[in-house]
Write a structure and sequence with these properties.
- The chain is of the alpha/beta class and 398 residues long.
- The protein folds into two domains: 145 residues, Alpha-Beta Complex (Aspartate Aminotransferase, domain 1); 239 residues, 3-Layer(aba) Sandwich (Aspartate Aminotransferase, domain 2), CATH 3.40.640.10.
- The protein is 40% helix and 13% strand.
- The chain is built from 14 helices and twelve strands.
- Helix 9 links the parallel strand 6 and strand 7.
Length: 398
């Protein structure tokens, strides 16, 4: 008899967190590692948010249990923020506050998926999605779009993958890991297709404010109102407000699904930290000036890293219009001998780069097919220049 259940043993370690942990361990050992692994803003949380949290620690009510669905003020803040940013009108009983967006993703699948159900998963995808589908008893069906499509799947591809067992579609725009953003027309077409075929959509909007070059990220139920009854939106404060460590996310959906997910959370983790919720309330009810300031820096770094990557022979890097990732194809490098080693996969190439020049990137295998690397440019301009420079030097040695 196995000591660990087959269900849990089948879960893969988060590749992005593993790469980040390895890079940090090497740094702690005194190695000059530059990490492009974690999707984490390098800015501090804005002061007004930190101050709200500090004040909250002194309020005795925040030392106690509160409703599992979230503080009433927090849920109302999500309602107001959703109307402000997406023009989507909801009510507080359609909101569940979670321990980060990751818990929201898990609970969304756990709430609507039964064993044997299929979930269409546009690829490249965030590494956690398929694990959540599997934990719910479902089967992830990957639908791959490569760099020639700017990593954006089409309705025709989704239709080709649909079967009588298809229960849901995972939709993420702006995308992690590619930074690609669907156009308004593409979002509407996918939403109408899902509605027509009675398919649930779990829409991850965590990068909604990180947009460039005039790109927009409309919310699916706004473009296709009929989808509101079969759509769960995932969001949180982590990326927008540089609050990854505060662990506050939320789900928005039809009342019956949110009630069921709340019941699950009441047994799983109860309420999110009240101090973190108070900080999140300050974030959501404040203005977006700090967000825009961070966006200017991300935009500059985006242009810098794309230009540098495209100077490396064998790299092809589309210009993303959202999030803070680039996702170059490195297929032109695979099979070539580098310092006596011949990487045949992007995982082997990522290992070689880390070992030889101490630069950490996440291989494409974490997000779908091999042949790609993900770089997060949520780091300093200096590290971008130095890190990508090291890779270029390595790959262009005589």
């Amino acid at each position: 008899m196995s000591r660990v259940s087959a269900r849990i043993a089948a879960i893969a370690e988060s590749a992005t967190l593993a790469v980040d942990a390895k890079a940090k361990a090497l740094k702690a050992a005194g190695r000059p590692v530059i990490g492009f692994g974690a999707g984490e803003p390098d800015f501090p949380t804005p002061d007004y948010i930190v101050e709200a949290a500090a004040a909250a620690t002194k309020v005795v009510a925040n030392h106690r249990y509160t409703p599992a669905a979230g503080l009433p003020e927090m849920r109302e803040a999500v309602v107001a923020k959703t109307k402000r940013d997406s023009n989507y009108v909801i009510t507080a009983d359609q909101v569940l506050v979670t321990n980060g967006g990751k818990q929201a993703v898990y609970q969304a699948f756990a709430t609507i998926i039964d064993p044997g159900d299929e979930v269409l998963l546009p690829s490249p995808y965030w590494t956690t999605y398929p694990e959540c589908v599997q934990l719910a008893g479902g089967r992830a069906v990957e639908v791959f779009a490569d760099e020639t499509q700017n990593y954006l799947v089409t309705v025709e591809q989704l239709e080709a993958a649909r079967t009588p067992k298809t229960k849901a579609l995972l939709f993420c725009s702006p995308s992690n890991p590619t930074g690609s953003v669907y156009s308004v027309e593409q979002v509407k077409a996918i939403g109408e297709w899902a509605l027509k075929n009675n398919i649930w959509v779990i829409s991850d909007e965590i990068y909604e404010h990180l947009l460039y070059d005039g790109a927009t990220a409309p919310s699916l139920p706004v473009l296709v109102p009929g989808l509101a009854d079969t759509c769960i939106i995932i969001n949180g404060v982590a990326k927008t407000y540089a609050m990854t460590g505060w662990r506050v996310g939320w789900m928005i959906g039809p009342k019956d699904a949110i009630k069921a997910a709340t019941n699950l959370q009441s047994h799983l983790s109860s309420n999110v930290s009240n101090v973190s919720q108070r900080a999140a309330i300050a974030a959501l009810t404040g203005d977006l000036s700090a967000v825009h300031k961070m966006g200017v820096a991300f935009d500059r770094r985006r242009k810098l890293i794309v230009g540098l990557l495209n100077e490396i022979p064998g790299f092809v890097c589309p210009t993303p219009t959202g999030a803070f990732y680039v996702y170059p194809s490195v297929k032109g490098v695979l099979g070539k001998t580098i310092r006596g080693k011949t990487p045949k996969t992007s995982a082997e190439l990522a290992t070689l780069i880390l070992e030889e020049v101490e630069v950490a990137a996440v291989p494409g295998e974490a997000f779908g097919p091999s042949g790609y690397l993900r770089f997060s440019y949520a780091t300093s301009d200096e590290d971008i220049v130095e890190g990508i420079g090291r890779i270029k030097k390595l790959l262009t040695e005589g």
